[in-house]
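Troubleshooting log. The previous structure file for this entry was overwritten by mistake, so regenerating from the original sequence record. Sequence copied from the archived sheet and checked twice against the printout by T.R.
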Amino acid sequence: MATSKPYPEQETSPANQSGKVAEAVSPYITRSETERATLRHQPELRYIAGLPASDEVWRFAQENALVPHVETAVRLAREHFKEIREIKLTYSPDPEIPHWETIAIDLHVTGTMDELLQADKKYTRAFNTTIPDEYHLKITPLLWGAVKEK
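Regenerated output below.
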């Protein structure tokens, strides 16, 4: 059986230590089991046209093949309205009519009354000519305007 060799003794005087470089130390981050479980069970965020889509929005869009059409509607909104404060996608089932569901595109915009009316007119025309007719009742653009003084 081999016997271990002792390390040679070293002087630890400052004169002997000059010119030596310390080893790099890698920091390790540990997470508790609770943090790891929380990260594993967070819902996967999905996006349509760069906007967060809730589970309901995502499900309805997938079931009805709406994703490319919602993306087109959002792109058209960005092209036609100069000052968009916020765009949100929401799932909106009608509480009174069964099976009447839609994805609402909430557009919060700012502009003068004339600018908003002209932009809305152009957006509606572009929406109606670009989005196929069979999807018009499943996507609802909702305009929320803040009017600026001239």
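The mean pLDDT is 84. Archived copy saved in two places this time.
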